[in-house]
Amino acid sequence: MGSLPFSVLSYHNDFMSEIRRAYVVGSYYAALTGAVTLAERILNHLLLGLRDSYRGTPEYQSVAGKGQLDNWKKLVSPLDAWGVLQAGVAGKFRQLEGIRNDAVHWGRDGKIDARTKGLESIQVLQDIIEAQFGISGQPWFITDVPGEMYLKRQAENEPFVKMVYVPNGTLVGPRHRLEVDNQMRFEIFDEAEYPGAEISDEEFARLRREAREAREDDAHNTASS
C-alpha cells in the first residue's frame, strides 16, 4: 500500500487509516468502497467550498446552486479548469471514477476483483492526498527553510490555500520554536518581539535560518560547557 500520506486535514488521515486497516484484515470491498467514497467527499468539499470564488467563469454555471454532487465529471472538470487541482490530480480522480463505477454499479457480468481494485484505489487516493493536501512539494510553500513548511504570503490569498491551509496553520515569526509535550503533541512558542513591518518571503526564510543556527550554536555551547 505504501506509506500513509499526511494531510493537513485530519479527517483525511483518520479515514485513510480506517480504509488501510480494512484492506489489511481482508475486507477488500469495504476498503475499495471506502476509498472511492472518501475521494467523492473530497471533491464535494472542494467544489462546494470554492465555487463562489470562481463566479465569473464559464464552469461556475454548471455547478451553481447545486448541493452535493455524485457526478464526478461535474466535480473534477471545474476544479481542474480553475487550477485548483495540482498537476496529475485530475487524472488520478478520473482513474478512481472508473474504479468507483465498476465497484458501485452493476457491470456486464457483475464481477469485480475487490482485492486488486481495492489496492489500486488506496494507492491512487493516497497519491491524491499527498499531492493536493500534503506538506512537501506544493507550490504555495517557501522552500528555503529545510525541513519546515511556511506558506508564501502571496499564496495565502489563493482560494484553495485560503480554505484548506490557512485555517490549519499558525501565524509565527522567524524566531519561534517548536517543542513536543509529554503526550507527543507539538507546541509552538513565539515570545520574540518583532518590528511592526512586513517582510518578504525571502527575508523571512533568511531570518528563520539564522534563528535556527543561533539556537543550534547555543545548544552546542551549553552541551560543551
Topology, pairings included?
Layout: H1 10-24, H2 28-50, H3 60-63, H4 72-81, H5 89-104, H6 114-133, E1 141-142, E2 150-151, H7 159-164, E3 177-180, E4 186-189, H8 201-224
Antiparallel strand pairs: 1-2, 3-4
Characterise the protein shown here.
The protein is mainly alpha-helical and 225 residues long. The chain has 2 domains: 124 residues; 84 residues, no CATH class. Helices cover 52% and strands 5% of the residues. The protein contains 8 helices and 4 strands. The strands form 2 sheets. A two-stranded antiparallel sheet has the order 1-2. It has a two-stranded antiparallel sheet with strand order 3-4. Helix 1 packs antiparallel against helix 2 and helix 5 packs antiparallel against helix 6. It is globular.
Keywords:
two-stranded antiparallel sheet, mainly alpha, single chain, globular, 225 residues
Rg result: 21 Å
Number of helices: 8
Distance between the termini: 48 Å
Number of strands: 4
Work out the strand percent. Answer: 5-15%
Low-confidence stretches: none
Gross morphology is: globular
Mean pLDDT: 91
Biggest beta-sheet profile: 2 strands, antiparallel
The helix/strand order is: HHHHHHEEHEEH
Oligomerization state: single chain
Strand ordering within the main sheet: 1-2
Tally of discrete structural domains: 2
The helix fraction, in percent, is 40-55%
Structural class determined from secondary elements: mainly alpha
